Amino acid sequence: MALDTGGSSEAAYRRLMDAVGTGREDEVDEVLAPEFVDHNPIPGQSAGPAGFREWMHAARASFPDLTATVEDVVTESDRLAGRVRYRGRHGGDFLGVPGTGRSVDFEAFHFVRFRNGRIAEWWGTADLLSALHQVGARVAAPAEP
């Protein structure tokens, strides 16, 4: 049975990004296909929708007031490309940097494939280097061996 998203993959994508921004993990199972594959998981992330919820939990632990604003969407057949702006205050560990209270504002890009009205595959990349700089982290090249 296909998800009723108002007839569009864009509506499903926006619904998922809204869930990320509000912390509504219950929305995930309604938008993601049971066989959902995240092609860019965080280390240790479980497979399927449960893994996406783990990512959401980790993101919101780092930035408790995280918001996700969809800036651009392009759709073609069963595919969608989206650009999202994440904003939030750094309140917890983020890539090894303890919470600083600083605000972040960075972008992410997603490429999504749909099956039967639900998100079946997900590729995503975020400007984490910019976010690290905004929280005051210093990023250095690895030491020579």
Explain what this protein looks like in three dimensions.
The chain is of the alpha+beta class and 145 residues long. It has a single domain (9-134), classed as Nuclear Transport Factor 2, Chain: A (Roll). The chain is 28% helix and 34% strand. The chain has 4 helices and 5 strands; from the N terminus they run ααβαββββα. The protein has helices at residues 9-22, 28-31, 48-62, 128-134; strands at residues 32-38, 67-76, 79-89, 103-115, 118-126. It has a 5-stranded mixed sheet with strand order 1-5-4-3-2. The longest helix has 15 residues, at 48-62. The chain starts with 8 loop residues before the first helix and ends in an 11-residue tail after the last helix.
